[in-house]
């Protein structure tokens, strides 16, 4: 089976700072990968590289078995979607118009969005608790509402691979959990792949199948969350001692807390 995302011997740098060296992993359909690391270790830079927006120093990167160069811009945009860290609204637009931007890779050059496109966008808005917001001006939204709109635009795009840079930013607790459950449902039911930068270890433990740790200076560790997210690796990752707690009435679920 061809992986949604295949990374081989990838080297990524920011100037003289090494983000990753010899990085190898594959993401299959339906899998969720959490990227964890301290501030400044290059999580956003790595995500941009995985999205094909910057060239790696070395290695190969394949999306559904093809390079970004072979796919071309439009086909790549149909297959992978990127949620950046910050949302910039340079022009006035409504919530529905903003969500419909996600349909652009699927339209011919001079084609306007149709009823089906609008239906997809409205379903996406409802999925992130923005039903009924379609006519609102984007500039009137709160930070959390604007973040959920960005996620709705990504859902409207309907890519096979979701690359999300801190998708929980600005969200209150109930919407954090709702978004993670929504992404997990898309992975489980539609077979999409999820790569997301997270800061909450315990949410990564619950809502990811695999984890990629960035230790700095090019050192990385990738694998199943059960093997990668341990007291030892996480204490080294964050430079602070952690301890593991198991809650028996929660099915023996593991949690990590400061030591």
Structure, explained:
- With 259 residues, the protein is of the alpha/beta class.
- It has a domain at 1-64 and 160-175 and 183-259: Rossmann fold, CATH 3.40.50.
- Helices cover 35% and strands 28% of the residues.
- It has 9 helices and 11 strands.
- The chain has helices at 43-50, 68-79, 95-100, 115-127, 143-157, 173-190, 201-207, 225-228, 231-238; strands at 5-14, 17-27, 32-37, 58-63, 80-83, 161-165, 193-197, 210-216, 219-224, 242-247, 253-258.
- The strands form 3 sheets. A 6-stranded mixed beta sheet has the order 5-6-7-3-8-9, sandwiched between helices.
- Strand 6, helix 6 (173-190) and strand 7 form a beta-alpha-beta unit.
- Helix 4 packs across helix 5.
- The model has no long low-confidence stretch (mean pLDDT 95).
Topology:
Layout: E1 5-14, E2 17-27, E3 32-37, H1 43-50, E4 58-63, H2 68-79, E5 80-83, H3 95-100, H4 115-127, H5 143-157, E6 161-165, H6 173-190, E7 193-197, H7 201-207, E8 210-216, E9 219-224, H8 225-228, H9 231-238, E10 242-247, E11 253-258
Parallel strand pairs: 3-7, 3-8, 5-6, 6-7
Antiparallel strand pairs: 1-2, 1-4, 8-9, 10-11
Helix pairs in contact: 4-5
- Name the shape in a single word: globular
**Residue windows where pLDDT falls under 50 for at least 5 positions:** none
Distance between the first and last residues' Cα: 42 Å
Specify the helix fraction band.
25-40%
Order of helical and strand elements: EEEHEHEHHHEHEHEEHHEE
- What structural class is derived from the secondary structure elements? alpha/beta
User: How many helices in DSSP terms?
Assistant: 9
